[in-house]
Design brief:
This protein has 33 helices and 24 strands.
Length: 876
């Protein structure tokens, strides 16, 4: 049952068998504990280590590699089998390590519960572990305590509860045990309820526990997190799709090659066992050449290096693919409180003597009077207390009025605490002349009804109806700007006692708001210039949300109206999807609304980032393509459900992360293009040789060495290439954009053909040139394939700019040197050469290899130069 807020307290008591004076008996507690279980949140079922390991093999490329390793072992090619299996093992370890960190959100939810709760049992007040709470317990609340379960309040005295982590409200909710909200009232409007994991910031209360554990509102959020499916990122989807296509193509190519070879052998007089064995071995070579077995590992390493760079700028990435996803984000759904705003109430405007002004150091006498009243009629300090009262103290200190000094000068002798009926608070202070000063603050309408005079520029004057209407109009003007208005009044009396809150002198009011972060406006502007739509999703009121959004330029004239949670309830999902095309502010929303909104944007084809810090953000953070949690103010739940955590809670860090994500994706495309063009060259060389009936120019060991060792260094160097200065001046790439868009596919094919024919050409030349023709020719092919690929890495730095116009990438030069030395050692060190089946080369051989290896670089640079010249000619 979840409508406890609609029932009166007597009905709740009867249903749960609670005595509002003595609480439950020991027997009642024992029975309820057996029925409902401990008051804790479930962590859900987690994958076993074996399940995570097996999941890594649910990949066609991995299965083909395993088959290649098996065949290599059967054929006696043990080095090939060892290298292939090593690649599989490395990829498996990386995948399991990442997946083991993916389900921290539910564990964080469990840790949110308060360790102790104050209850009445058998008429005795005791403190117990929260796990022992059961529905029906009589729970006592006081300032500073975390609410241990969902509670229907039976009594409340100035009770205020900070529910910002659950509802998004920046101001603590004033609770009223006697309130009777509507059945469909949102959590923030259920004033007679207190919810698990919220914080009592003021006053005290008592009530009946009506829900514990997974039945609480926070428990429902835990259930949503447990049920949410893990969404794969765009890069994962593209690599999976590409892997399936490539795997099928490889199988078809190998089958075709085997069929061609078998038919040739049959035509030549019959296929003998040795010939069939050699054909099978060659098919393994072709499979190894075609599979970019190092691609997954290289992409993972590039992402990991990006994670390290981002961590230095306060962006902690929890899942590696999130780095790439950031670069594709088209919509940032951001929570308001603590994310776009400072989560700290601040006085902005003062109204005195019929005039509204900004708070400043040079306060007028009337403003000084108002600030003094608000600071004296106050139980907070600059660091502790209710956020609204802290804001009033801070405003007074801005004008030079320190609360500690005011309290010493005019000691408090009496007070009338705030309550929700009067909507005001009064304190009485002794003055130097022996008289007493009554200071009163409260809601403007309530306070005006107690005032008969007003402080004006001409002194104290009678307050008539016209004057009250003018004050009310001014207050409403500030309220329309989302400022919370509190009025102040005073009077002097000769002695304590009597009626304090009558015949007051009205001084003015203060308008306060949770202000936007200073840096957010610039970050929003940069996001918009990059084609990213920022969206505010908050539990706060619509008026407040719209005012903050306009101040930040998040919404402008062309944007649609804001939507509230109740208005969202009236929309079908299709209508909500349509509304998301223009609406940029969603206010007074619940956790379920947030997930619906994220889903609606995703249904529009958007790549959605959800930014938040509260418990209520958990499901939407997990539902989004990438969830971004605040590290300083964020709850463990938000951090556990997110893909990225901002350690500085700075919205600007998100924009940096997007820029970094775009650059990393560009570098990953360079890396993938490089690896595939190199593998294409290997395929061209091996398959063409088979078509012509030649021996394979490369052994499987040669290909694996090139793919995993020689290619590794330049691929990693491309992964940390210099940033693209235009990264944030172009719109996000379409989520369905191919990895080979923008000419990458053509580059891969043409360079693959070029490298392949260079390798095959030198192999053919070696067969004619040397007596030990096959092994020497294979050595030449092995050498030119490796060195040409090392040089080819420079071609991938930029599709248009010439090399001399780009920033120097020292890592790429180091990769060229390291790869070249390793290749030289493999061929020239006898023991290693025997393992790889090669022979040392002469100086003239190396010179020939070097010249041919430079051909791809010269041709690519020439093509760029011609394209640039043609481009200039077209512009002129």
């Amino acid at each position: 049952m979840n409508n406890w807020h609609t029932l009166n307290i007597d009905t709740c008591r009867e249903r749960l068998g609670t005595d509002l004076t003595t609480g439950l008996t020991r027997e009642q507690h024992r029975s309820a504990l057996e029925q409902h279980g401990p008051n804790r949140l479930s962590e859900g079922r987690r994958k076993s280590l074996m399940a995570m390991i097996l999941a890594q093999f649910n990949n066609l490329l991995t299965l083909i590699l395993m088959a290649a390793a098996l065949v290599s072992g059967i054929l006696g090619e043990i080095p090939d089998a060892i290298i292939i299996l090593a690649v599989i093992a490395i990829n498996t370890v990386v995948g399991v390590t990442q997946e083991s960190k993916a389900e921290e959100a539910l564990a964080a939810l469990k840790r949110m519960a308060s360790p102790k709760a104050l209850v009445k049992r058998n008429g005795v007040t005791i403190e117990i572990p929260t796990e022992e709470l059961v529905p029906g317990d009589l729970v006592l609340l006081e300032a500073g305590r975390v609410v241990p379960c969902d509670i229907r309040l039976a009594e409340s005295a100035d009770l205020k509860i900070d529910e910002s982590a659950l509802t998004g409200e920046s101001v603590p909710a004033e609770k009223e045990a006697e309130a009777q909200p509507d059945e469909d009232a949102p959590l923030g409007d259920r004033l007679n309820m207190a919810y698990m994991s919220t914080l009592v910031s003021y006053g005290r209360g008592a009530g009946i526990a009506v829900a514990t554990g997974m039945q609480t509102e926070i428990g429902k959020i835990a259930t949503m997190l447990e049920a949410a499916e893990e969404e794969r990122t765009p890069l994962q989807k593209k690599l999976d799709s590409f892997g399936r296509i490539l795997g099928l193509a490889i199988l078809g190519l190998c089958a075709l090659m085997f069929a061609v070879g078998f038919l040739r052998e049959f035509a030549d007089g019959g296929a003998e066992g040795e010939a069939i064995f050699e054909l099978f071995f060659t098919a393994v070579s072709l499979a190894v050449a075609a599979i970019p077995e190092g691609m997954t590992a290289i992409v993972t390493i590039v992402l990991a290096m990006g994670v390290t760079r981002m961590s230095r700028r306060n962006a902690i990435i929890r899942t590696l693919p999130a780095v790439e996803t950031l670069g594709a984000v088209t919509t940032i759904c951001s929570d308001k409180t603590g994310t776009l705003t400072q989560n700290r109430m601040t006085v902005r405007r003062l109204y005195t003597e019929g005039e509204t002004r900004n708070l400043s150091l040079q306060a007028t006498a009337a403003e000084q009077k108002l600030l003094r009243i608000m600071a004296l009629c106050n139980d907070a300090t600059l660091s502790t207390g209710d956020p609204t009262e802290i804001a009033l103290v801070a405003a007074a200190e801005t004008a030079g009025l320190k609360k500690s000094e005011l309290d010493q000068e005019q000691k408090r002798e009496d007070e009338l605490p705030f309550d929700s009926v009067r909507k005001m608070m009064s304190t009485v202070h002794r003055q130097m002349d022996g008289r007493y000063l009554v200071c009163t603050k409260g809601a403007t309408d309530s306070l005006l009804s107690r005032c008969t005079r007003v402080l004006t520029a001409d002194g104290i004057r009678p307050l008539n109806q016209a004057g009250k209407e003018a004050i009310t109009t001014a207050a409403e003007e500030l309220s329309s700007q989302a400022l919370r208005v509190l009025s102040g009044a005073y009077k002097e009396i000769d002695e304590l006692g009597g009626v304090y809150e009558e015949d007051l002198i009205y001084v003015g009011f203060q308008g306060m708001i949770d202000p936007p972060r200073e840096e957010v406006k610039a970050s929003i502007a940069e996001a918009k210039s990059a084609g990213i739509a920022p969206v505010m999703i908050t539990g706060d009121h619509k008026t407040t949300a719209v005012a903050i959004a306009r101040e930040l330029k998040l919404i402008e004239s062309g944007d649609g109206e804001a939507l509230s949670g109740s208005e969202i309830d009236d929309l079908s999902q299709a209508e909500l999807v349509q509304a998301c095309g223009s609406v940029r502010v969603f206010a007074r929303v619940s956790p379920e609304h947030k997930v619906r909104i994220v889903d609606a944007f995703q249904d529009r084809g958007e790549v959605v980032s959800m930014t938040g810090d509260g418990v209520n953000d958990g499901p939407s953070l997990k539902a989004a393509d990438i969830g971004v949690a605040m590290g300083m103010s964020g709850t463990d739940v938000a951090k556990g459900a997110s893909d990225m955590v901002l350690t500085d809670d700075n919205f600007g860090t998100i924009v940096f992360a997007v820029r970094e994500g775009r650059n990393i994706y560009t570098n990953i495309k360079k890396t993938i293009g490089f690896l595939l063009s190199c593998n294409a060259g290997e395929i061209v060389a091996v398959f063409t040789a088979i078509l012509f009936g030649w021996a394979s120019p490369l052994r499987p060991t040669h290909i694996l060495w090139v793919n995993l060792i020689t290619d590794t260094f330049p691929a990693l160097a491309l992964g940390v290439d210099s940033d693209d200065p235009d990264a944030m001046q172009r719109p996000p790439r379409p989520p369905k954009e191919s990895l080979f868009a923008g000419g990458t596919g053509i580059t891969v094919v043409l360079n693959g053909l070029l490298i392949g024919f260079l390798t095959l050409g030198l192999f053919a030349w070696g067969l004619k040139r040397y007596d030990d023709s096959l092994i020497h020719a294979r050595t030449l092919a092995f050498a030119v394939l490796s060195i040409s690929q090392l040089v080819h890495a420079f071609n991938l730095r930029h599709p248009r700019h010439l090399l001399f116009k780009l920033k120097i990438n020292p890592y790429l030069f180091l990769a060229l040197i390291a790869g070249g030395l390793l290749q030289f050692g493999v061929i020239m060190v006898p023991a290693v050469a025997r393992f790889f089946g090669v022979v040392p080369l002469s100086l003239s051989d190396w010179l020939l290899v070097g010249l041919l290896s430079l051909v791809p670089l010269f041709l690519n640079e020439g093509v760029k130069l011609v394209r640039n010249l043609l481009g200039i000619a077209k512009k002129t």
